[in-house]
Amino acid sequence: MPPSTTWLQNARSNYMFAKTLTENYQDSEEEPYRSKYAARTRLMTMLDAVDRFLEEGNLENYSPVRLLSILLNLEIGVIDQETEELSTGEQHLTKAKALCEEWYPDDNLVIVLRLNILNQLSYLYTMRADYEKALSILQEAQAYFEKWTTFKSNINGEETKKIRTVIEFLDCFEYNLNEKVQDSNGEVNLDKTFTQTLYFLAQVYEKMGDSAKSAVYCYRTLKKQLILNHYKTLEWCINTATLSQYFAGIDKFGISSHLLRVAKAMMDSKLPPKNDDDEDLKKGRADFQRIMVKYYLMLLDCSSRQHTSEESEKTNGQKPLQEQEKVEEYRLLEEDELNRMSCSPIIDKLVEFGNFDQAKAIFVEAQKLLNLAKEYYTLNEHASDYVDCIQDHSKLYRHLSSFDFDVDRKCKMYKRRVDMLEEILKEINPKHFMAQCRQIWFELGEAYNEMYEMKVSKEKDQVTTSAKKLNSLLKKSTEHFVAFIDSFRENKNEPIPPKVPDEMVKPLIIAYFGAGRNYTKILTADKKDVISNWNKCEEFYSQAVKYIDNNPDQKSQAQIELDLIQEMRELIPKRIMMIAGANMMA
């Protein structure tokens, strides 16, 4: 005997109460899943009853018994996921999927149930890092949605209002669905479910290392959320700005600037004023400002790289036509709408060769944003983020200096860089901020060396008068390179550091090379000092070679640098012999 209407009504009430329990966030830390377990017990009791009805057979196609069997297995599987019972969760979700395929293999109406099952299964496999399986399931979900879209497009005119196109969760508690009016939000809810599919696809492609496809699905997710007006404004804006970083990272500044402009327009028009005390809002605005700074850094960096490439004369600072066309593929809001929102365009044109004023305009805008971000990310309350801001400020000066041909001004910019970096080193404890300290030591080693090279290029004919200043720059460069190297030693008595992470091998070898080479540049008229300096250079080079000899599996991480060191080290004995036999200039 099939379930009565009264049983279905009671089951629906029980189901709604169970859903309320799953969304209860008031459980204690000692029993964080208490409400979810209570909901699961109710749903399992319902499923047991449904299974008994199933055994009786003779069921209609859209029988509540069939639909509820699918729905309840889905809901129980979700709770099992949320309570970290992945094995039982997989069992229930897999069963729900199998029932769908058995009873409704080509049925478009069960699309909502089907997509929810596939979304949850993909999420489960993502939690297990089985990304191939998760991707396969999501692609299946996408194919089902596209099939449903074709089905929907074939329903014409007024018939749309009469013909059912989806079966929603609460429809599972009803008899004679084709005779009942479909919920007006049914298709909207389906779109929201498919938006989650798109979001999961973006995440899985990113996990699999396919950033290009991940970006496509990120965009589709954001666009869908915008169309459906189904999003949290701050979260949506930060996600849009984050997506822009991918395009800036591959030099697609037209697309990146459009996404940033849309995010800014939405933040300015839909969020409370900037003086609002909401902590999340303050953090969100500061995060957006930092993303903007990263964008300007990448724009300046790309401009610098362009001028050293063979294509510099061809592009001459202009965006390629191909990129201009691609902006339309990733458009979120039309230009007219952005203008109505009083959102000014964001600079996306590469800096022309030697155009310092153009580069400075970008620098000034980025510096303003960085100072705003530091109002939230202070040293006392957000030390790590504050240090990141200081490092970005240093990079801004470095990039700006590449557009200035005046050596004195370049040196002043570098002086600001090293001052701010050395100042922050005094404020932080390497024990707690080792990764950032290493970055800063290495950057300072390079910066002081570059300052030396700039001074030498200007003062070739004044070497004797500048020797003390030049040697001071080399000394500081070496000190910072050595600090970087020493940070990897477990104790100071170790001749060379133990094995370092692969991504640190190249910087480590460069630091050895930089410190050693600095000794060969020291200006002195004393032959003994010159020979001593070359011996110290050889010592640093030998330590670099010994490190790789001890860790041969990492040789490929710094092959070019190592080859150069070995080649130069072989020449040092001859160099010392030549110096020993020569008369030094006074």
Automatic annotation (TrEMBL):
Keyword Cell division appears in the UniProt entry: no
InterPro entries found in the cross-reference section: KBP (IPR022083), TPR-like_helical_dom_sf (IPR011990)
Subcellular location(s) of the protein: Cytoplasm, Cytoskeleton
Keyword list, A-Z: Cytoplasm, Cytoskeleton
Protein name, as recorded: KIF-binding protein
GO CC term (a single one): cytoskeleton
Keyword Lipid metabolism listed: no
Biological classification of the source: Eukaryota, Metazoa, Ecdysozoa, Arthropoda, Chelicerata
Membership in a protein family: Belongs to the KIF-binding protein family.
